[in-house]
Design a protein that fits this description.
homodimer, TIM Barrel, alpha/beta, 11 helices
Amino acid sequence: MRGFSLNQATTKHWPLDDLVAGCVDAGVTAVGLWREEVTDYGTEKAGSLVRDAGLTVSSLCRGGFFHEADWYDENRRAIEQAAALGTDTLVLVSGGLPGKSRDLDGARRHVGDAIGALVPDAQAAGVRLAIEPLHPMFCSDRCVVATLGQALDIAAPYPASAVGVVIDTYHLWWDDTVWDGIARAGREGRIASFQLADWITPLPSGVLLGRGLPGTGSVDMRRFARAVREAGYDGHVEVEVFHEEVWSRPGAEVLAEALSGYEAAVS
Amino acid sequence: MRGFSLNQATTKHWPLDDLVAGCVDAGVTAVGLWREEVTDYGTEKAGSLVRDAGLTVSSLCRGGFFHEADWYDENRRAIEQAAALGTDTLVLVSGGLPGKSRDLDGARRHVGDAIGALVPDAQAAGVRLAIEPLHPMFCSDRCVVATLGQALDIAAPYPASAVGVVIDTYHLWWDDTVWDGIARAGREGRIASFQLADWITPLPSGVLLGRGLPGTGSVDMRRFARAVREAGYDGHVEVEVFHEEVWSRPGAEVLAEALSGYEAAVS
């Protein structure tokens, strides 16, 4: 694998200039960026900052949210933004059930159709759409794609160079079919991104900001890293943690812990 | 199906005497009971109360928690208690990872072994062990059995008369393999209990007390009821909701809403 990447969400309140300088200081060569932060900073300016520091952008989070009315235009903008930042990977979180719908099958079909509609734009921009299955606790309001198998089935009709999947330990660790899924994703050439976060309890209200740094929770990180490597993945390994307590600490300190969590996982 | 049953957890603060009287008043003929409440009331006394009122005990919750050191003795007591209450169904929630373990496969194997160890006791008592898969958000701390398929695989080595599974809409609704799983459970004669609760967001801190009464959330209850009926299930349908706001309301009012949620589901 190509080594560690700091996903910007892990150090959410670290200003981008400081984050880039901190990565360079720590010998880190890649970052995963988020659209909101990049847009606030200025996309062109962010691209230059990162490039001038010699960093690779391993992914841009996130497109998707296909339950929203403006999904098509919004995702086209996300593809353009990824291209402008020089990353080949746009992470897609599919979105949940629209309105008060209970039609989960229908929502999943719509995700497949929406991705199909975006493939030509993504190919033209040289950006790969990376479908991220989220933990089933996000199924109603954030991501109807709840397993790796589902993500692979949705990706299947499209070229692997255009549509891949994200393997995030936090979302998939509970699933006993995930090991076969990772092997399948490797065979099909679909692994677009590999992200580490740990499962810790109790979950906070709303459950979004409950992730632990790798090594602090229930996930067998080494098994995941081995499975993804054996599946032939040679990209970056992002650490992507959302947690208020982690966010409240100095960026460089969190970066150091993220890095050592990564090292323990891949050792 | 044999009709509605009020699971006691839905009206947690309703004293058992009042709950039984309330069920009789409402024409409800079955209740699901919980060990703690029954033990506090007195098991023999609770059994007489319910029997004298003409109510069936559709299930006793819960045995399991196999990650705890005293699981064997505790589950034998649970089996005895179920028999004393005159119910043929003991719901098992498997328990989570022991201590700081990350060995999820090992924990799942242990659940299978533990159930195997209890089968003779259950058969002798005329009580069926009903494995309940819980939502994957409970995987680390409450239930390593996260899908219906897993529950069926764990049950497979044992006679269907001794080991069955629980189908609870709240825990399984996100899973696109659940429809095949319900059909399989029917073919294998494993459906021991069917419970209704709805998925509502945002989830509260700790996520345990976040369930909605049937009809208030994202779950397609009618599809579940149809699938379970078509799988040949002819037992009771319990409404089992854990929610602080629901618990704060008068029992009879909650019972009426649970009953109309059930009726909408099975209509």
